[in-house]
Specification:
It contains 4 helices and 20 strands. The chain is mainly β. Strands 1-6-7-10-11-14-15-20 form an 8-stranded antiparallel β-barrel. Strands 2-19-16-13-12-9 form a 6-stranded antiparallel β-sheet, with helices on one face.
């Protein structure tokens, strides 16, 4: 058993040890409840992006950089600099705001569970409970809108006319961009041990406060998204190789959101019990479950440049420039040739995740 797994049971057994060995009649209770869970959306955290691409000089003698992706970071900066220098308004809507902020959020959901408790004294009750919830971790509407904006902008930024090449002919450029979003089902299981402190000790209505701790298990898969952009440069009409694909490059980006699978949770709350009889009653309970916000954003990026013949190199004649090279034998490199990015954390969440469970329940005393 993991150390955190024993927290709730340890609290319970320690409190039960205080009680007298002989259990008086009616000292135990079992409760079943169904209700809802409300979650806050902590936004604090630490943001960063991969370093700028390695610089190199194009065949026209101007600077460029080796980028792993055009969708975010320095790649988006370089492409937008080039289009600005050309007097073109179309720009990449970079993914940076999505990568550098808390966009994966825990949703509100239903909750159900059971609790078993032991009256230690008329004032104190030790309790062990399990609560299950379908509280999903999903990407915010702002994140989804940002991903779509980046997808669409890739097409417009790479579909502008290119400057004329050798011989005065203008090569043709076409682009595509697709995105895929996956928001799978997930769940949470809270296993807790708490101490209920009765505000008063007699009567049918007993208000109480609750304090304790335990473990939350975050199950299921986390949300993710991917973007795939491709552009091709073909020989211009009227040229000897009209329509031939001379450059074919693909930009693939994956966004992932991770969270600790198992974490300590603190519990604060309270409620009211109403004893219908000496054997059973009803309860309304409100508890705040407090955990460290551990949601992080992770990005992967992979660039692919097709090897083609006849060999060709084309550099947009501005400073800085974007260069396209279709074969290693040219001894020139494409600007989309940065090293793959794998598992780079662009945002690490901090602060406190607060999830409030509000449940009415039915208890049986024995």
């Amino acid at each position: 058993m993991r150390r955190n797994d024993s927290t709730a049971l340890g609290i319970l057994f320690t409190l039960l040890a205080i009680a007298s060995p002989a259990a008086a009649q009616g000292q135990w209770e079992v409760e079943f409840h169904v209700g809802g869970m409300l979650s806050n959306h902590p936004e604090d955290g630490t943001a960063t992006l991969p370093a700028a691409g390695a610089p190199f000089t194009t065949v026209t003698g101007v600077p460029s950089r080796r980028e792993s992706s055009w969708y975010f970071g320095d790649g988006a900066v370089l492409l937008n600099q080039v289009n600005t220098a050309r007097g073109i308004s179309a720009k990449i809507a970079a993914l940076d705001p999505i990568l550098n902020s808390s966009v994966a959020q825990r949703q509100n959901a239903g909750s159900f569970g059971f609790r078993i408790s032991r009256h230690v004294t008329p004032r104190y009750t030790a309790e062990f409970g399990i609560d299950f919830s379908r509280a999903q971790l999903t990407m915010s509407d702002a994140a989804l809108a940002g991903i779509e904006a980046s997808r669409a902008s890739f097409i417009s930024a790479f579909s502008v006319p290119l400057p004329a090449g050798a011989g005065g002919n203008t090569p043709l450029m076409t682009a595509t961009s697709t995105d895929t979003v996956d928001q799978p089902r997930a769940y949470q299981v809270f296993t807790t041990g708490v101490l209920n402190i009765n505000v008063k000790t007699d009567g049918r209505i007993i208000p109480y406060a609750t304090v304790g701790g335990g473990v939350v298990v975050n199950g299921g898969d986390s949300p993710s998204a991917s973007l795939i952009g491709n552009y091709q440069i073909t020989a211009p009409p009227g040229s000897p190789m009209a329509g031939l694909v001379k450059h074919d490059e693909t930009d693939t980006v994956s966004l992932r959101y991770s969270i600790e699978r198992r974490a300590f949770v603190g519990v604060l709350g309270g409620g009211i019990k109403y004893a219908v009889s000496s054997r059973w009653g009803v309860r309304l309970d409100v508890r705040a479950h407090l955990t460290r916000n551990s949601v992080s954003n992770v990005v992967d990026a992979n660039a692919s440049v097709a090897t083609l013949t006849p060999v060709a190199v084309y550099a947009i004649p501005v400073n800085p420039a974007v260069q396209f090279s279709n074969n290693p034998s040219t001894n020139a490199q494409s600007s989309l040739s940065g090293a793959p990015i794998n598992g780079f954390q662009t945002f690490g969440g901090s602060g406190t995740q607060v999830q409030i469970i509000v449940v009415p329940g039915f208890f049986w005393r024995f």
